Known about the structure:
The chain is of the alpha+beta class. It is 50% helix and 8% strand. β3 and β4 (62-65) form a beta hairpin.
Amino acid sequence: MAEELVLYSNPMSRGRIARWMLEEAGVPYSVEWLTFEGSIKAPDYLAVNPMGKVPAIRHGETIVTEAAAICAYMADAFPEAGLAPPTDRRGDYYRWLFFAAGPLETAVSLKAFGMEVPQERQRALGCGSYGTALDTLSFAVTRHPYIAGDTFTAADVYVGSHISWGLQFGSLEDRPEFRAYWDRLKDRPAHIKATALDDEEMHRQLQAAKG
């Protein structure tokens, strides 16, 4: 019997990354929806993720948190989906997956909160500067059709999600190479389905909040 796979999420969160990844993997799963002002801080969920944040997945007895880790785990747990390169060709796959999870997100977050690190202190941060992070992202998305080569992988789910949101909300500069990269990803059936499912739940929650 296959191990149960559960996604813990909220449709207005990074849980959308995990949902897309689950749809790319093409395996059965269920969803436990959490609310930011309630169940996400309840003891039952804090036993899953003490941070009280989403997404998280439970696969049998295995719990994985952090969206990048979920992408990497799912690719390894379901190799038949072909979402990770062969082990000896994973350099770019790991490199850009964790670049987006670390330096890129940090730089974008600092910028969004109006925090500018003095130039003489930038080397103390893993992200350097906002400009350097974006120039590096430009380099990453123009080397190959996909982030790790000629084939779509789990790393594209994660990097692509960051670029999509950055362009949508203005936290990334609107560079042609970012648009071109996202255009190669946005119409994937798994992304379309995942977005529709999360949008449906988001609208349900918003209507419920209105009473």
